[in-house]
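Revision sheet: structure tokens.
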Amino acid sequence: MTNVKASHKFSPPALKDASPVVAGYFAVSFVFGLMCINQGLPMWLPTLMSLLVYAGAAQFSFLALISAEAGIITVVTTTLLINLRHMLMSVYMSEHFEKRGFSKKFKWIYGYGLTDESFAYHSVGINNNIDQNYLTTFNASCHFSWVMGSLVGTLTAIYLNEVISFDLSYALVAMMIFVLVSLANSLEKILVALASITVMVGLTLLFNSYLNIFIATFIGCGVGVCLKKKRS
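Predicted:
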């Protein structure tokens, strides 16, 4: 199939659809910037990590491990385990991009900006003829918000922390709940979400492990496949 060339134009619909994620990313990365400075890390680190790493769970885990004086091997291994899910998400999206004839260069660009929230939105709408401009605008606006939130959080911690007290630890959870609720717009999706949540809660009560989320996701996907086959 001939590669589809993107015109690299700004997509207003993408910015509109991304606006809830943009707002959530700014709040969460703002907290990240605050926490970095409060833990005595250099002021350039939060923004640089948000620009290069761009992984909320990994960045916050990094803070927790650093505060616990964990070794470099522990930090790297934990980050790898947390972000393994991105391999599965990338494979899924790549298959759809291949069918659409998107270029390899675009796949690399998209992969750099792929997050849980963008995957949740795009995996649902990928068959609705969304183009490369839409995908690029969506991811770029989310990444820009993440970086700016870290920068503003850093500056706030440096210059206003003694004046204003912030408690935004709920921001990441609130954003995830919003994305889940907005996407669970059918009975099948609600059942998949409930299955994943039930398994996750049950596993967490038994033992606390980063693998719980992979197991819960796998079972949720299995429920979704079964429901889809039953419908067809």
